[in-house]
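Appendix C reproduces, verbatim, an entry submitted by the partner laboratory led by Prof. M.T., so that reviewers can inspect both the input and the predicted structure.
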Amino acid sequence: MSKINLNRRIMLRGLGGALLAAPFLSSLFERSSKAAATAGPKRTILMYTAYGCITNNWFPAKLDGDLLDTDLLPTSLAPLAPFAKKLLIPRGMRTMNEWTADNKGPGTGRGQGNDVHTQVTASALTCQPVTPNSDDPFSFNSATKFQALPLGPSLDHVIAQQLSADGTPLLMNIAGLTKESPQSAISYSDSQKIYDPVNAAGAFSQLTGILDLNSPVNADTWAVSKGKAISDLVKDDLSTLARKDMSKADKDKLAAWVALTNDVGRAISATCSRQLAMKLGATNTIASGEGDVVTRKVSATMDNADVYSAIAALTAACNVNPVVVLKYPNNFVFSGLGINADSDNLNHRLNQASMVGPCVANVIELLLKLDRYYAQKFANLVQMLDSIPEGDGRTVLDNSAVVWTMEDSDGCAHNLNNHPFIQAGSAGGYFKTGKIIHLDPTSGATPEQMLGRSTAQCGPGSDMQADGISQATGTDAKYGNAPVNKYYCNIMNAMGLKADANGFPAKDGQASEVIRFGYSDKTEEFSGGFKAAPDAQIHSPGGFSELKA
């Protein structure tokens, strides 16, 4: 891709979409009105961490109500306390396709019997079962345990296919890896198609066409930076379109869309600069030397992980890609944090790849240290996004849905109920913020029960034996089962995605609201694999109304 093409595409993306979609102007305008009511474009930024967390310390004690900084300060989320008014914590959700020892085919367990990691990461953002299926949760068959893949695209691709210029998200692995295996991949461009990440250099190269002050700037970009309206750059095309036989209502809609596009252009040209890149720290070179590749310092205030976050923030501010995924590595030794054990073994509370055995010394404190590190990285990302103004008193953060989630709830139990999610930003006013919202109140769980049981093993007073198979460190399976499919529908609707006649997201769909996503919203219907449960479907369509502003 040439630098000139990248510049022009960024500046003309909004209007170009309107011109290309002219035959469908009514549905286009309805979508734009719903998803772009503010001056800035919408973005979805996902931060994904491997395994789980110590839920007792991660979740605030409050289960529902206003989120205050004092709710966060006693928890692992303390670094996020300054942003409490811009946060949303949806409680009581479940992700799909949980591995348990009872997953032995249709009507048993809570998912497929492939692997404690493979099926979970594959289904995390797809809500799809994997193939080939296994009904033996302890089998070491290579095809089912290590190579199984989901039967549909992941959320990041579903959004990007409608909104990104090239139809793909920006996926970065924070360890700089450029290949993912089926046991770790979360991003899928289509059924059974792993989408590989880029490293910092690859991601930043996508920005150099608009940031490199030593490279030639094309005439269109120069004109917009000097205040010229985007619509003036394509006035001949607009004039041709205006001469078409359109109703007055469609002409009014076109005029409104043009005004919106010019607003977006002004917002981008005002913020997207090399100066911003340097301020965020996106121009820093990934550090090498002692320590690990994630936590190694590039300056007194930033480590390598922060550089990736800065590139994500810059990508959002420049509107190069409205869908960004930051994936932290699995099976990683965070030696820079003083943790000298593999992160997977550590989450199992063991010193080797098993599920039962004697606890590693001080394992709870080591896991809490990792939880706090992740929380600080998310807080740094939030701060970067909130530091970039975007008109009408809003920031890039305000016009985004920035979500941190993880593979499991508790990393030893590998349970997927009561799943940790925290969101920053309202996506332009779509979501409530400054709230903790309990989405599964009918379960009858108390706030204490919803803190989970991560400290039940390997802590003071325990027998210092870890047993992941029993799931004793996970939240009781009766609680926290609101389907994550609905939350994903909320995110897609906040971004303004179109849907087909059945409410599934569809690039060429005519419906204005996504109400269905994935294979099923009941994890037990994943047992046995695709079509094993005859009634597998979305039983509760639509997003969570409780989350909407």
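The chain has 18 helices and 16 strands. Additional entries are available on request from the coordinating office.
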